[in-house]
Amino acid sequence: MRLDGKVALVTGGSAGIGAAVAERLATAGARVVVHGRDEQRTAAVATRVGGVPLVGDLAETGTLADQVLRVHGRVDVLVANAGTGWSGPFVEMRYDEIERLIAVDLVAPLRLTHQLLPPMVERGSGHIALVGSIAGRTAVAGEAVYAATKAAIDIFAESLRLELRGTGVGVSLTVPGVVDTGFFAARGRPYDRSRPRPMPAADVARALVDGITNDRPETVVPGWLRVAPVVRAVAPGAYRLLSARFGEQVQSRRESR
User: Fold this and answer.
1) Which residues are catalytic?
2) How much of the chain, in percent, has pLDDT values that exceed 90?
3) Overall pTM > 0.70
């Protein structure tokens, strides 16, 4: 899909992966709408890419699609990147924290896709770019709900792609590993492993935009992470032993991206 002149909405675009994606889309000629919760950071990214800022909490509002359509009249590319998380034992999560995480990480991408997809199908052109996580394929102790939402996004992308075959609308899924953003610091438990080393957000953005322009159904970043789900599938017993030995220590800390 050529991006020159296309209208692209990037959720969670005020920092990290979202900001890097917004910059790369703008460089490719897209008209970018930058969504974020922080007004100043969102405006700063929008200014940098020559785009439009939209501020809002995806857990609390269902009007983001209407706001974008009022600005440009259409959306050609949806990048559903915004996400939140929670780190700690599942039984220590309050129910409102469970609901918020599901609302932002799963319900919001589905809702936006449901709102913005029909006009794409009518035009015979468009793209839904979803952001998953390796946690949704390998499981992570202390992040049970986050991993569950990402696993759901994974299968949603695959199912939607099958539905949209022949319509001219593409669906891509980017599955990153550890990324060097504020995600870990914000959760109150910084990433403390030596391996795998966190990769730059720009690497994920490059893979995501490449997935849009070349209609790639799926990209895992870095590529070697494809091995982990394979091991889990063919040797689940060995995989669980390794996970138990090398998995992160569970602590009661919240996180957000």
Assistant:
1) 146
2) 68
3) yes
